[in-house]
Amino acid sequence: MNPMLLYIDPGTGSMLFTILIGAVSAGYFVFQKLKLKMKFVLSGGKAGTADAEKIPYVIFSDSKRYWNVFKPVCDEFEKRGIDIEYWTMSEDDPALKESYSHVKPSFIGEGNKAFSKLNIMNAGVVLATTPGLDVLQWKRSKNVDWYVHILHQPGDTTFYRMFGLDHYDAVLISGEYEEKQLRDIEALRNINRRETCLTGITYLDTMKARLEKDGGDRGTVLLSPSANEQQQNTDSETKETTGPSPCLPDTKTVLLAPTWGETAILSRFGEKIISALVSTGYNVIIRPHPQSFESEKEMMDRLQKKFPESEKLHWNRDNDNFEVLKSADIMITDFSGVMFDYALIFDRPFIYADIKFDKSAYDAAWLDEDMWTLRILPSIGIPLREEDFDNIKEVIDKAVNDESLAAGRDRARAETWANPGRAAELTVDYLVKKHDSFNTKE
Q1: Are 371 and 180 contacting, i.e. CB atoms less than 8 angstroms apart?
Q2: Which of 172, 222, 315, 438 gets the most CB atoms within 10 Å of its CB?
Q3: Directed axis angle between helix 372-380 and helix 176-189, to 10°?
Q4: How many angstroms separate the CA atoms of 110 and 93, rounded?
Q5: Residue 441: helix, strand or coil by DSSP?
Q6: Contact (Cβ atoms closer than 8 angstroms) between residue 285 and residue 255
Q7: Res 216: pLDDT
Q8: Which class in CATH covers the domain with range 43-201+421-438?
Q9: Do domains 43-201+421-438 and 213-416 have the same CATH topology?
Q10: pTM for the full model?
Q11: pLDDT range class, residue 15, cuts 50, 70, 90
Q12: Tens digit of each residue's pLDDT (9 = 90 or more) over 66-123
């Protein structure tokens, strides 16, 4: 048999899977409807029995990296003694190791297996940070009452690929400008008005509390074991002297933390900017966006091969970014939301690559007004142009102690971080209130 006769291209395969899921879902809903009707009749017409299998609350996470967003919410449900299920597509999600009484974490598989379960879920209120509901493979289930989107970083609701939030019922926001963006998109596309609730940012609250608990001290430089060992030896030698020696090397730590995509730092200047950073002699930590290892694997393999781990260079892939941000004397980024983690929590200036952002693939392309992120950026960060790469050490040295952007950071906090310290509480308040609205007895 000709093997080409058995070949199905990825696009056709995806389409066939969507059709199959649609057919399976339709059959499932018909079966469920009949089953519920039978239960209703057999129970003597008691509606409560017919709907007994519905899960009141579900959190869906497509990646373990969003556990920092969801953990405060799960903790709040646990604190209140309210049962909730946490569905994750990551087999090593930290949630699976938690010891909760009222939060039930479960691994639902990856890819199509997970979407198959999501598309027929029977739940009251579903909370997720995943865009693209009812656009790609994740379809709205007819047995779900309400879909709620929670932001995974401060910034713009238009910083999603087109139509990313169109089919959610509600969006939990952290700044009033985000609601205006949602309303403008709704008017332009003539789509349903989504509810909004000004809750704040859960993981920023947690990071702030961690920093306060640590006393705000700068963390340990996260380098290779040999580098840390060498640093400890240097520290020991320093303690034996009566004062600082002018011969000791400057051990600044520079964190390169970009986003992913064609306009991101690694795509535009990968080898050039890493070479420039290595030439400074400073400790360099590179923390790519997790999506780069999936969507830009060839580039990542090439860069990691050209710049392997060493005493002065470390590739960081920790799920939790708190320690690596805390240890950095300065951060270099582009349009990554990590800029807000660094500036708003650790109250430090950062350097951003002065790259023209291509918004053509994003919801931002629908609006004439510039994104809030791009408007606030010059107030909280220091631009780095390609022609500055040869002098990057001087740029870093100047930026480390720059206090001129403190007012900009205060402004950013006020505009994009509502209700600091209360995001989890207000999020659960909203979810419970919405669930109760669907279950109020006449």
Answers
A1: no
A2: 172
A3: 150
A4: 12
A5: coil
A6: yes
A7: 63
A8: alpha beta
A9: yes
A10: 0.80
A11: very low
A12: 999 999 999 999 999 999 999 999 999 999 999 999 999 999 999 999 999 999 999 9
